[in-house]
Inverse folding.
């Protein structure tokens, strides 16, 4: 159990209890595609991530593709939530691994068939190395699966809104025209 993780989570709980208005957070990511390729540069806080498609899907394989990142986000989020709750519960966890896989019918993305463009199914296996009692680890797993933000977002309907703005090439000023919202 990490004392630093326990302290951070305990302080966060205390802050939210004392100031409920800070409980609502907004996370941001921006992506930029400036070349005639599938490679995309995503900015998340101070981090830059390259997103691309594998060679067999027309990319240059310079980074994971969006659906692979979604699977990684699920695994990473679960591992973080495992660490957070394990530390608060006083459980010693040596190692956590999450192996996720998603099933996708490319015909949906390619508009070749009336099938979903996204995953039809996602499965994962979590491996925990720990000498804690099995019933405590079962309880931990139930808590994580209920409170993992990425898993929650994948398992329930989430409102997604957006708009498309268009600017003319070479125009450096002026308002973009909204063509879809």
């Amino acid at each position: 159990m990490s004392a630093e993780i326990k302290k951070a989570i305990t302080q966060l709980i205390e802050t939210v209890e004392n100031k409920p208005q800070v409980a609502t957070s907004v996370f941001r990511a921006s992506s930029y595609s400036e070349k005639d390729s599938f490679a995309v540069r995503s900015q998340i806080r101070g981090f830059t991530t390259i997103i691309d498609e594998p060679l067999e899907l027309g990319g240059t394989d310079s980074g994971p593709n969006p659906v692979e990142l979604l699977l990684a986000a699920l695994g990473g989020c679960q591992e973080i939530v495992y660490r957070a709750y394990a530390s608060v519960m006083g459980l010693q966890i040596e190692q956590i691994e999450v192996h996720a896989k998603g099933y996708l019918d490319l015909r949906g993305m390619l508009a070749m068939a009336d099938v979903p463009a996204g995953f039809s199914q996602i499965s994962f296996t979590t491996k925990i190395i720990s000498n804690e009692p099995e019933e405590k680890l079962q309880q931990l797993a139930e808590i994580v699966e209920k409170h993992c933000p990425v898993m929650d977002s994948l398992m329930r309907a989430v409102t997604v809104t957006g708009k498309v703005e268009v600017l003319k090439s070479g125009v450096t000023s002026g308002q973009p025209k909204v063509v879809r919202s």
About this structure: The domain at 3-180 is CATH 3.30.300.20 (GMP Synthetase; Chain A, domain 3). The two ends are 47 Å apart (CA to CA). Strands lie at 30-32, 40-44, 47-51, 95-104, 119-129, 164-166, 177-180.
